[in-house]
């Protein structure tokens, strides 16, 4: 593994010598990078609007990426995706606990020795971390082995990670120390401020992460799992008493969207809704400590004369839902609430007060940071592509898709967190049984372009979803369900047969569910090697109808809790070669097509 790391470091240095020379001539050193990573922060419930200091120092002075997504709506696999630049099906870290996730899995997969902080160290950076790194990084395994890649670190450790006034931390690999009675986001902020001053005492460029637990639920793991509202500092208790969760179309809706276990959820009663409103108020209050820390670090940078040579990233690991789609607090779904998340970047050359419409994902972050460091990742070393940071780059960006994938359970949080008997199972985390929902494994794609905004998913039950977010932003009308079927859907101003659209999106998902490297960035090239199709609109040419009609379909043979490819149907698409291939869907390894005969037979499902 160390040989691999050394080889990668040498490749960085060899391939980026010209870039590094140019950077050195323009500045005394490479830019610094400050990264603030919250836990479970939402986009759709206005959390950013309730952080005035973040607005002042980052939103007004940097660029907000309004179409930014996580690819896995769960802490640990999302963080692995973020820090490696690889899709979860390539890291094989897909859960927060063993056997499919958590720190021991990160170690077994070799990631502890081969990810972003190691690459930055090889590029000449000092690296620091304060807060939560991985789930299942605990007081028992913190030194088995030590978390790699950081010159300085103070990690929050399980089983105390989500106990807001009972954190235990390990500094630079030392024995765990209890901070009982102190407010965890304040503790990790103070550690980050100290690391920031330490970093600036050296001439080397630095990379610093502050990863507070806010606004994650307060969690007690033993003897049973209890997940309740996050705690907040006493100084913020007076805030947001009039706030209520936005009553959007998908807030506890009368008509439910979704498939599998979601579609049959009962509506939430008034008692639960009142609790959920207070739950979100508590989340907003918990974020105020983070808001204050943002201002504190900006001031430290400014006073040291380093602000103008520092890129500041602000994001979260995944989104969050509360009451949307009749759900208790939680994540793990493919809905916008769970995967559409905040991202703000401030730094040299980044436009101030700008809102970018570029489609971006956490998979792009590692390659972005390495490019800023002057040591761009080799093309096959990442499943993402550097973020467009200037207005010109944003306008030129043609990226329109995000890979969304998930394996395993949906765990309702909060004191009312239970979904009746909706396929619930014991998650085996030492908790009371029957709190988690199975059958929550799915593959999906989010596609956003000029004149269209779509979400397509195939669940492990082989149910399918297609939402047109232009007309249905709450994702309540599944266009592949009989009650919501329409003959034509308008895409970029022109009518498109819904069934033909679904076939294109299914083929795109087929590529993305097992993509690697450039095929994750340019998936249409796997379907059309000639390069004449570079996006969804190109693929809708009617001359490709038969080609997509006969593609293998995304499918599952069982609902597994982790990435087990043998249960995930065909893995390869058939490239277009310009010939007319008349074959049944089943001949190409897909699900047997079952046409329902409605509306000229356009609506179909695959079983």
UniProtKB/TrEMBL annotation:
Domain Sulfatase N-terminal: 31-374
Enzyme Commission no: 3.1.6.1
Mod. after translation: The conversion to 3-oxoalanine (also known as C-formylglycine, FGly), of a serine or cysteine residue in prokaryotes and of a cysteine residue in eukaryotes, is critical for catalytic activity.
Record GO biological process: phenol-containing compound metabolic process
Keyword match Transit peptide: no
Signal peptide interval: 1-20
Recorded GO MF terms: arylsulfatase activity; glycosaminoglycan binding; N-acetylglucosamine-6-sulfatase activity
Catalytic activity of the protein: an aryl sulfate + H2O = a phenol + sulfate + H(+)
Keywords annotated in UniProt: Glycoprotein, Hydrolase, Signal
3-oxoalanine (Cys): modified positions: 75
Keyword Glycoprotein annotated: yes
Family: Belongs to the sulfatase family.
Protein name in the entry: Arylsulfatase
The species this protein was found in: Emericellopsis atlantica
């Amino acid at each position: 593994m160390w040989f691999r790391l050394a080889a990668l470091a040498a490749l960085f240095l060899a391939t980026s010598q010209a870039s590094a020379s140019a950077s050195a001539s323009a500045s005394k050193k490479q830019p610094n990078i400050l990264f603030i990573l919250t836990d479970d922060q939402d986009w759709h419930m206005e959390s950013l609007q309730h952080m005035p200091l973040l607005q002042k120092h980052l939103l007004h002075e940097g660029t907000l990426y309004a179409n930014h997504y996580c690819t896995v709506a769960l802490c640990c696999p999302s963080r692995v995706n973020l820090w490696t630049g690889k899709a979860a099906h390539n890291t094989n870290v897909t859960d927060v606990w063993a056997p499919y996730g958590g720190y021991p899995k990160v170690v077994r997969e070799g990631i502890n020795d081969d990810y972003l902080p190691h690459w930055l160290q090889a590029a000449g950076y000092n690296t620091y971390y304060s807060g939560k790194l991985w789930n299942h990084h605990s007081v028992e395994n913190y030194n088995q082995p030590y978390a790699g890649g950081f010159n300085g670190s103070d990690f929050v450790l399980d089983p105390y990670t989500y106990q807001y006034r009972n954190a235990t931390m390990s500094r630079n690999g030392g024995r765990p120390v209890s901070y009982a009675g102190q407010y965890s986001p304040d503790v990790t902020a103070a550690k980050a401020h100290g690391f920031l001053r330490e970093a600036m005492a050296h001439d080397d460029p630095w990379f610093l992460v502050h990863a507070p637990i806010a606004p994650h639920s307060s969690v007690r793991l033993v003897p049973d799992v209890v997940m309740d509202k996050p705690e907040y500092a006493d100084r913020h208790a007076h805030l947001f008493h009039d706030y209520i969760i936005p009553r959007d179309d998908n807030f506890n809706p009368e008509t439910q969207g979704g498939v599998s276990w979601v579609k049959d959820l009962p509506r939430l009663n008034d008692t639960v809704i009142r609790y959920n409103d207070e739950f979100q108020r508590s989340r907003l209050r918990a974020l105020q400590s983070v808001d204050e820390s943002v201002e504190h670090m900006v001031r430290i940078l400014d006073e040291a004369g380093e602000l103008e040579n520092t890129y500041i990233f602000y994001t979260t690991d995944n989104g969050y839902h509360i009451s949307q789609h009749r759900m208790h607090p939680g994540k793990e779904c493919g809905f916008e609430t769970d995967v559409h998340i905040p991202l703000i970047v401030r730094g040299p050359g980044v436009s101030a007060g700008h809102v970018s419409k570029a489609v971006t994902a956490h998979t792009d972050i590692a390659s972005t940071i390495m490019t800023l460091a002057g040591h761009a990742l080799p093309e096959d070393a990442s499943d993402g592509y550097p973020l467009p940071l200037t207005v010109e780059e944003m306008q030129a960006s043609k990226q329109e898709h995000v890979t969304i994938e998930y394996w395993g359970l949906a765990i309702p949080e909060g004191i009312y967190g239970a979904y009746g008997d909706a396929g619930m199972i014991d998650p085996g985390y030492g908790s009371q049984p029957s709190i988690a929902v199975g059958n929550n494994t799915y593959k999906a794609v989010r596609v956003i372009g000029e004149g269209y905004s779509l979400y397509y998913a195939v669940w492990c039950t082989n149910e399918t979803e297609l939402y047109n977010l232009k007309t249905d932003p709450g994702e309540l009308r599944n266009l592949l369900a009989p009650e919501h079927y329409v003959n034509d859907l308008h895409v970029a101003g022109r009518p498109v047969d819904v069934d033909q659209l679904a076939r294109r999106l299914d083929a795109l998902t087929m590529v993305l569910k097992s993509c690697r490297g450039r095929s994750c960035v340019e998936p249409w090239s796997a379907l059309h090697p000639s390069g004449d199709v570079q996006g969804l609109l190109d693929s809708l040419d009617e001359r490709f109808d038969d080609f997509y009609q006969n593609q293998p379909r995304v499918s599952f043979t069982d609902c597994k809790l982790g990435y087990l490819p043998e249960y995930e149907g065909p893995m390869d698409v058939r490239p277009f070669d310009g010939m007319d291939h008349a074959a049944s869907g089943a001949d190409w390894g897909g699900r047997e097509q079952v046409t329902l005969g409605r509306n000229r037979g356009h609506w179909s499902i695959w079983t």
